[in-house]
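Worked example

This section walks through a single chain of length 280. The input is the sequence exactly as stored; nothing has been trimmed or padded.
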Amino acid sequence: MLVLLGSAGSARADYLFTFNYASSGPSLTASIANQSTNIANYMDSIIGCSGCVQVSDKVAVAQQYNADGNVVGPNGVSLTLGNSEGATNNAVTPFAYSNDNYISNMATNPNGSGDSQLSQGITITLSKGYSFTGTFSFDYQIFPDITCQVLNASSCGGAAVGGYYPNQPDLSFSASGGSPTVSQTFWGITPGTGDGNSVKSPDSSHELAPQYIGTSGNFTLTGVTSLSFQDWPAAIGVDNLKLVTTTTPEPRGYAFILGGLMLALFAGTKLRNTLAKSSN
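Given that input, the structure is written out below as tokens.
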């Protein structure tokens, strides 16, 4: 009985970072420098720690960016992380509203104007003994860039290497600090060639600028303390960072106490029965 009550089963905890805690606010003011801290504080609150998350400088909470109208979507309405949730391709119907936050290295004003590239990417670091262990996934977007309008050598910076051009938009994800390091690069592609059938954008009836919106799939992380999302040459966004972790906690003290009480009760009952038989 003590063994059954004292053993603890597995416990599952899901951590989902949606970044939907505040409006993006005017991004071309001094307050943009504080968004990294705000993002870190938000992630602290989800984890339940204080100061265990650090976010690299110059990261924005975004909503309205659409690469100057070059992002494709159904009926020519740009499909972005700001107006979709869990989109697996560019043909998903956008929300009826556009107020979904995500984090990005590109800042815009709330109305989508005033684009400003802040950095080359996003790095999230854990400290104070915390780490990412479990199954990890995220939504992402690789935004198009005017330096690479068509996938060829003249448009995208020279001859392709390994099938990809030097200035082809991409998102490089890595998870380090654990064992082993996880690394994968996602690439922007020409609309209509593998990421849904949307080819219209607000700027063009047949957009050719490489781009991508989708979900990462699952990565297995063990003891990871740093997540990195880097781009070249322009803008990326990530949203809905999800970690599903399964842990087996130590046997709980109250289980042993309860087991002991039940054992004592069982022994007492047996003793009373024995005494009753003796008296008879």
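What to look for: The chain has two domains: 11-249, 252-280.
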